[in-house]
Amino acid sequence: MAKRWLSLLYVQVLIAIVLGVILGAFWPETGAAMRPLGDGFVKLIKVVIAPVVFFTVVHGIASVSDARSVGRVGVKALVYFEVVSTFALVIGLLVAKVLGTGRGFNIDASTLDASAIQGFTQRAAQDSVSAHLQNIIPDTFVGAFSNGDLLQVLFLAVITGFAINALPERAREAASGAVDALGRIFFGIVAIVVKAAPVGAFGAMAFTIGAYGVRSLLQLGELVATFYLTSALFVLVVLGAIAWFCGFSILRFVAYIREELLIVLGTSSSESVLPQIMRKMEGLGCSPKVVGITVPLGYSFNLDGTNIYMTLSTMFLAYATNTPLTLGQELTILLVAMLTSKGASGVTGAGFITLAATLSVIPDIPITALAVLIGIDKFMSEVRALTNLVGNGVACVAVSRWEGELDPARLHAALHGLPVAGVGASGPVAALPDEAAARARPAE
């Protein structure tokens, strides 16, 4: 029995996280030295993210007889992202105002070390939403893959998919089959790489605790606890309501993607599970077309955790520095955050950069106050990534249902660990793997 449990990936990741925390807490220098393990795992995953997204989207579009439906899915996804992201921003702002998180800190920004945030403010200027949108067209076809820019890859994939879709039927089928075969190869690579997830989670967690220490978490525990609570509230109430409307339980969905959530918890990056979550969404009965468009697009435009973090942290810094804000300035924070958050990706640290970009347009709040958050940002980054992942999964199911591309029977069976036979939205299936096999092979 013990061997069976230890063979499950999510159990291995959980054990690795606990061991990483212990190492970082009791031997901080050794723990901090484990950083290459976490960074190396994330880099391995990022190597295959661009090809996986490209081939998945191309095959999804090339296989659709009605090419106009692809554009319809994209528009519906963007509308959903904007509505739900606005809810996240407003909730973060309201929670900060109701709880007054940050009041009494009396931080004097003039005494803080501005050099500590210089790199982040420079990147904030470079990674603004306008610059991000201007760079959606890559300099070269290969350049999009070498830079790892998901929006550029998605742009090329859509064009390529439509080009294949316009070919004569025989040529289209041959090209679509070749793309599908190449995609399967890269998913095979992911299946190999993901076996190293426990090592990556161990290294990342050991580094976090070793480098920043538990003390840094306790010093600003009020903000961290508020952020954790707000994110949980958003997942259970807002995403839970959306899930209920779509016919499933948010708690069962969280259990369904538990392996991916544990990997994200260890690496602080939702991109580390992008290929696996796309396969998991297809397993729920979402069509490959909707999955291929909604999930990659959501990694840039549907960052619920990042949105909560931005408004909550902005209000925290305003209260902590005794900076009064008018209603107009609070609305400005919402509008600016609505734009700057669209330029963030699923990579750890992106939320801190977009926060710097947001603060730059509210001069009343000293941007040097960001230095206060550096020590705890890594802990908050984990919850940002977790919330982003759950939000993108729910979005995929919601858009699939909206588009009429969701198989309810397969959704119910997958979330309850039941076998199902027949034809689902993702194509013909003989039966879903049993629950134990699904847990052991998250990429399938």
Describe this structure in words.
The protein is mostly helical and 444 residues long. The protein has a single domain, classed as Proton glutamate symport protein (Orthogonal Bundle). Helix content is 74%, strand content 1%. Strands 1-2 form a two-stranded antiparallel sheet. A hairpin with a 2-residue loop joins strand 1 and strand 2. Helix 4 crosses helix 11, helix 5 packs across helix 12 and helix 12 packs parallel to helix 20. The longest helix is centred in the N-terminal third of the chain and has 32 residues. It starts with a helix and ends with a helix. The C terminus is likely disordered.
Topology:
Layout: H1 2-6, H2 9-26, H3 28-32, H4 35-62, H5 68-99, H6 118-126, H7 129-134, H8 141-147, H9 150-165, H10 169-193, H11 197-219, H12 221-246, H13 250-256, H14 258-267, H15 274-283, H16 288-301, H17 304-320, H18 327-340, H19 350-359, H20 374-403, H21 408-416, E1 422-424, E2 427-429, H22 435-440
Antiparallel strand pairs: 1-2
Offer a concise description of the structure.
With 444 residues, the chain is mostly helical.
Largest sheet: 2 strands, antiparallel
What structural category do the secondary elements indicate? Answer: mainly alpha
pLDDT average, as an integer?
Answer: 76
Helix content: over 70%
Give descriptors for this structure.
22 helices, Proton glutamate symport protein, globular, disordered C terminus, mainly alpha, 2 strands, 444 residues
